[in-house]
UniProtKB/TrEMBL annotation:
Residues 186-396 form the Fe-containing alcohol dehydrogenase-like C-terminal domain. Belongs to the iron-containing alcohol dehydrogenase family. It comes from Mesorhizobium tianshanense. The keyword Oxidoreductase applies. Residues 8-175 form the Alcohol dehydrogenase iron-type/glycerol dehydrogenase GldA domain. This is Alcohol dehydrogenase.
Length: 404
């Protein structure tokens, strides 16, 4: 039995929990910087949270120019804001890009340098400015993870900074903040979260000695991440369709947000795999959202990994409520069908062709996907360029038989 669990110092979950934000922020000092986006900055709930922080005796500065996919220029702007505000903490209110901006700003403001200096794993030498993460979507799980993903114009694909010191100090997860999330974003974010649960639950299992967590940010499949992953799959699969159809249902919004947070905990420790590696070049070529790409790829990656994870996929099927179907092989096959049907029900494209991906770029995309070493090495089945091409061919044509 082996397990690893890295997490914020505190996680507060539940409807109305945003009311504690002022007291939490004030515990870190008298000045804070909030990272958010223009849409949220105009929201009455956001303004109420800013007032609450101010009422707790904290001087508040707001940076509301967060841009999706987090280009380096956006980070530069936020850093300039931080230099002027001299914050004791940074509050992130928003989706994944807002949370990743807060993490990266806290890092550079504390240690100096450029984001490029920290690409990869274990590059953060000491503790950074505390981040209080307040997600407004149920998807990335960034409120509990050691990762910040950003866009570098000198890089073809998105890049990541991964270090346990990037995990927020506090996460406040209030599902009432997701009630205004549009149906399309709810679907994409929820699909992304489900892939986190599935990929972390079926990741490679390593036996590399007692110092494994000190050598890898993402250690692979383990008993603690498995617990979070399987429960996240149950929660997300049970709530996603209903939350997309009726976003006013707080019970479903709560279930979805809790599932996404648990999935974040799972992949923060175990890591993701092939679907995420392949999405990077697919997203770069099609300019489609990360969640759409990983969800479109997931059934095909599951089919590819089936020989190595039959028992785990059978457990995924059971967690998704699939009735017993005899042996583990039948249940494992049923899990792929269940994931495919769920994603179709919330509007996820079934093929890469529907995303605008061109068949002629399969070779390039396969080669680029192999450069995401931490994801490639985390896959339960060995990966090379040819196997990546096969997965992409199957996903482009919508033909899982190519993976048999």
């Amino acid at each position: 039995m082996f397990g690893t669990f890295r997490s914020p110092n505190a996680v507060y979950f539940g409807a109305g929990q945003r009311a504690m934000l002022g007291r939490v922020v004030s515990s870190f000092g008298r000045r804070t910087l909030i990272c958010t986006d223009e849409r949220l900055a105009a929201d009455p709930m956001f303004r109420a949270m800013v007032e609450d922080i101010g009422a707790a005796g904290v001087d508040v500065s707001v940076f509301s120019r967060t841009i999706p996919d987090l280009p380096l220029g956006c980070i530069d702007e936020a850093l300039a804001h931080a230099r002027s505000a001299k914050p004791d903490s940074i509050v992130a209110i928003g989706g994944g890009s807002c949370l990743d901006l807060a993490k990266t700003t806290a890092l550079i403001h504390t240690l100096g340098g450029r984001p490029q200096d920290y690409y990869g794993e274990f590059k953060v030498a000491k503790a950074v400015l505390p981040v209080i993460a307040v997600p407004t979507t149920s998807g990335t799980g960034s409120e509990v993870t050691p990762v910040a993903v950003l866009s570098d114009p000198d890089k073809t694909l998105k890049v990541g900074i991964s270090d346990p010191r990037l995990i927020p100090a506090v996460a406040i997860c209030d599902p009432e903040l997701t009630l205004s999330c549009p149906a399309s974003l709810t679907a994409v974010a929820g699909a992304d979260a489900l892939t986190h649960g599935i990929e972390s639950f079926t990741a490679i299992r390593r036996n590399e000695g007692a110092d494994l967590p000190l050598e890898r940010v993402f250690v692979g499949k383990n008993i603690i991440s498995d617990h979070h992953a399987l429960e996240s799959i149950r929660l997300i699969s049970g709530a996603l369709v209903g939350a997309v159809e009726d976003g006013s249902r707080l019970d479903l919004r709560s279930q979805l947000m809790f599932g996404a947070m648990l999935a974040g905990h799972a992949f923060a420790n175990a890591g993701n795999a092939a679907a995420h590696a392949l999405q990077y070049p697919v997203g770069a070529l099609t300019h489609t959202a990360h969640g759409v790409g990983v969800a479109a790829l997931m059934p095909y990656v599951m089919r590819f990994n089936l020989p190595a994870r039959r028992d785990e996929y059978a457990q995924v099927a059971a967690a998704m409520g699939v009735p017993p179907k005899g042996d583990a092989k039948a249940m494992a096959e049923a899990s792929i069908d269940a994931v495919t049907a769920l994603f179709a029900a919330v509007g996820i494209p079934r093929t890469l062709a529907e995303l605008g991906f061109q068949e002629g770029r399969i070779g390039w995309a396969a080669e680029q996907a192999m450069t995401a070493a931490r994801l490639v090495q985390n896959n339960p089945m060995p990966l090379d360029v040819e196997s990546m091409k096969t997965i992409l061919q199957a996903a482009y044509h919508g033909d899982p038989r190519l993976l048999s």
